Amino acid sequence: MLRGMSDGKPSARAVSGEAAPREALPPQAEEVLGGTPVLLPPPGPIQIQTGLRLLEVLCPPGQEKDVGAWVLRRNLPVHLAEDRLVPDLAGWRRERWKEPEAGEGVTLAPDWACEVLSDETESWDRGHKMLAYGLGRVGHVWLVHPGMRTLEVYLFEGFSWSLLDVWEEQGPVKAAPFEALAWDLSALWAG
């Protein structure tokens, strides 16, 4: 079974009775959930730009994707059990980080993941992906919605996600797990 997105809602499209081999998948099938490849639309220009702006806020130019005790990566495949997820941004505490082999994903769950939402992927990111992050024991997840100009911060405790805070439009942000860093939410939005 090959899962895809249609009109912003998850849909299933049969390929065969079993999961398709990786080489038979179209290039946009970067994620796998429960052993089943998932087709997602590529991020749009707004989502890409917002993710780059957030990375620059958390890790200003010249710091080589390092922010204090953190290592941040963009669009790096993360393998959690039989799931393969590609967070828009992910971070590991430096003491836990191990650089993956070239061309390989990471098998170590991130301490923080961020998804930049679009109309086409929001239900996937909020539903299936948040569940997979929880099962993989990712500590914090941020959901950034450029269209609504919001940042939602979640903490995984025990067996569920707790919404810690929501920021809208602009204003000072000090968000877990990067509470030591103060920045303005308006830095993420174009013009």
TrEMBL record:
Pfam families: Uma2
Region (Disordered): 1-26
Protein name, UniProt field: Conserved uncharacterized protein
Residue span, Putative restriction endonuclease domain: 31-171
Residues annotated as signal peptide: none
InterPro entries: Nuclease_put_TT1808, Restrct_endonuc-II-like, Uma2
